[in-house]
Amino acid sequence: MYIEPFGVEIWMNEWETRCALNLAETCVESLTIKELLQLTGKNDTDLSGLLTMKMTYGAIEGSDRLRDAIAGIYDTQARQNIIVTHGTIGANMLVHKALVGAGDRVVAIVPTYQQHYSIPESIGADVQQLQLRENDGFLPDLDALRDLVVPGTKLIALTNPNNPTGALIERPMLEEIVQIARAAGAWILCDEVYRGTDQHGAGMTTSIADLYEKGISTAGMSKAYSLAGLRLGWIAAPQEVIEAVSIHRDYDTISVGVIDDYFAALALEHREKVLARSQTITRGNLSLLEDWVEKEPRISWVKPRSGTTALLKYDLPVSSKEFCVTLLNETGVMFTPGSAMNMEGYVRIGYANNPDILKKGLALVSDFLARQPE
Questions:
Q1: How far is 335 from 338, CA to CA, in rounded Å?
Q2: d(CA 310, CA 305)
Q3: Contacts of 224 by beta carbon, 8 Å cutoff, 6+ apart
Q4: For 16-55, what is each residue's pLDDT tens digit?
């Protein structure tokens, strides 16, 4: 099976360990286990409970405790609608493999996480891309979507909040997308890994799984919950999807680790505290980034409304990869080139890390930009 090389992951693998200030990171600043225990009202002595944990495969679909905790972040989902996966990346792969066949129409709203068009392409699907545009605030053109979602379309794939733009599709537009999908009989796969990071209100985006009888939500512990090291995600979906996914999952997952399951359940049972920390970081850091963008004549953007990333348009006569490599070599600051997401002329910044790192990195980028010829 041929599949397109994963542009963002190749970039991260090459440079992530070679930079001094990683402004390409997409997770809210990661928690230590000690910090997680403190947030959840536990302490070091509570770890002693792990000493008697037998290192078996554990519950194959995920423990009842964890699946109940995951169901609790949705309005209408129950334990039987949840299956635990190896990260959101595993969840997305399983959904595409379980639902999409050769020749099926898949509409991917891009830019997005590359899985959502490269995996169905590798299966032989008829993948149509709907390009988000800056002058639309990186929100989908619904008339264009209607043209692409023909009767019999198998799947519409999107990320909400969007990666990499930080655009947020709110409930009214999601309901219109549901109407388009329902008319064609299509599933909607919504990668919601950044859910919980909205810049206003409670921060929790409406989930497609709660809006549509053929809505599928994927998410995980990496971004909003600051626990990427658990490598734990999930699918929330109708029972027929869970059953179809389970057949594929037996071949590539079996189960997640019991320790990962334990800590994910602990975090989700105290999600208000975990997400409050994340929102403090993302909202404070976005304000810092906004101030910086306003002062930089060679940088423009559409301000994110959610998520942890933004696309920055730069005014320099170089490719995005050349921009990022030169910046990294001269300053140690790492961005992700837009070319890795088919968005040439932009770079992606992750702004949810330690505020001091963000401030220091942006100052170095300003110096770099000031040195570039007019």
A1: 9
A2: 10
A3: 28, 193, 194, 195, 196, 197, 275, 278
A4: 999 999 999 999 999 999 999 999 999 888 898 899 999 9
Question: Could you tell me which residues are beta bridge partners of residue 84?
Answer: 234
Beta strands 155-159 and 105-110, pairing class: parallel
Pair type for strands 233-236 and 299-301: unpaired
Handedness of CA 162, 16, 359, 201 (dihedral sign): positive
* Total-model pTM: 0.97
From first CA to last CA, the distance across the chain in angstroms is 47
> In sequence order, which residues have a C-beta less than 8 Å from that of residue 16 and are 6 or more positions away?
22, 24, 334
DSSP state of 265: H
Contact call for residues 356 and 364 (beta carbons, < 8 A): no
Of 211, 203, 224, 127, the C-alpha closest to 176 is 211
